[in-house]
Amino acid sequence: MKRYKQFAPVLISEFEVSDWIHPLHNHNHYELIYIRSGKGNHIINSNSIKYNDGYVFLLGPEDEHYFEIETITHFVYLKFTDLYIHQEEGMLNAGLRHLEYLIKSRETHLSGFVFNDSDRVTISRIFDVIISMKKEVLRNEDLIWMQVLTLAHILQRNMPEIRSNEHRTKDMQAVFCYIHKNIYYPEKLKAQVMAEHFKFTKDYIGQYFKKNTGMTIRDYVSVYRVNLIRQRLDSGKFRLKQIASEFGLTDESHVSKLLKQNRDKFSGF
């Protein structure tokens, strides 16, 4: 498996090709890929997703992918690292929470974002702005970051569970999305609150989740939260007190206790 490594915090590229030359690969960075024009298939983690004009894909570091191009495709790439995401003073920004939620949501990597006419126009113009800054990326890093956060807001409101109608409220993907989106609010992740949101009974939602995932809601929430906390600690920019406040935890000792409890739990999650 080829792994592409990026050392710059953010890079922008734009190109048009009729044949994809890269092998199946993953990265050490994140990628926002905009299909300005073209048609084909995007193979992500062995899943084939058809793409057309205006599609957007968001990939995390461990996602394996390549393209099968049917008609000449115009790609715009925005590639950024953890260092770029975890900028000082930015962690509590709501836009970054949208971005983190999107990156960590499983279904984000199994489909392309499809937009209504209004959002398609907005997305196109945002990428026009991004492209205009590609020759002076270092000088424009803050401005590019603003575009990333704006995109995160638009992508978030186009997630499947946001667009779904009532008969899809029991969709397992919607349950994942609810957890990822509300990981900062422990009260919203209580079984009773989740059951009411999804129109389940308290007992049934637990059984439903475990049947589909092999783990309890409590374990999934715990491990997911700890993974996010570890990312913050690894960045070296955030104190335990800040992290405790962001995740609605009691204090620094609560954070330390969670890390200790989950040190070896569900490795490879």
Automatic annotation (TrEMBL):
Signal peptide location: none
Keywords (A to Z) from UniProt: DNA-binding
Annotated GO MF terms: DNA-binding transcription factor activity; sequence-specific DNA binding
UniProt entry tagged with the keyword DNA-binding: yes
Source organism superkingdom: Bacteria
Domain HTH araC/xylS-type span(s) in chain numbering: 173-261
PANTHER family noted in UniProt: ARAC-FAMILY TRANSCRIPTIONAL REGULATOR, HTH-TYPE TRANSCRIPTIONAL REGULATOR EXSA
Name of the protein: AraC-type DNA-binding protein
Organism: Pedobacter westerhofensis
